[in-house]
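Subject: Sanity check before I submit

Could someone independently write out the structure tokens for this chain? I want to compare against mine line by line before I put it in a report. The sequence has 147 residues.
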Amino acid sequence: MEKKEYLNLVKKISPKANIKKTFLCSFFIGGLICAFGEALRQFFLYFRFEEEDAGAMVSFVLIIITAILTGFGIFRKIANIAGAGTFVPITGFANAVVSPALEFKTEGFILGVAAKMFVIAGPVIVYGIFASIVYGAIFYFVKLIGG
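---
Independent answer below. Compare away.
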């Protein structure tokens, strides 16, 4: 089967997406996740957390909730409805770490969970760190020359 035939077959068999519905669900659920994060932030600020600490606590709580929902298979159901709305950075990242770990848990803790945990998230971490080093170096040298 040639590539063009294969693509036609895939197009014929694939379910048709309702773009308006997908967009609205993504926007609404992504907005709910962000609103929940802001509510958490306000909660921590109310209890006199420093601004930076409140932000860290929000990240921590969102990661824990996402990991638990992923573990029970609930996050996948939400993502099927919300689409890109669940890509809110912290929840999408937590899901990307937990999902492969759960998939390979039958292979044991070291060779399964620990080894596969960063299959998807690992490159994000590596390139994120690399980009921050490059950005930091550029910022340093611009400041050094008086820019």
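---
OP: Matches mine. For the report I'm noting this point. The radius of gyration is 20 Å.
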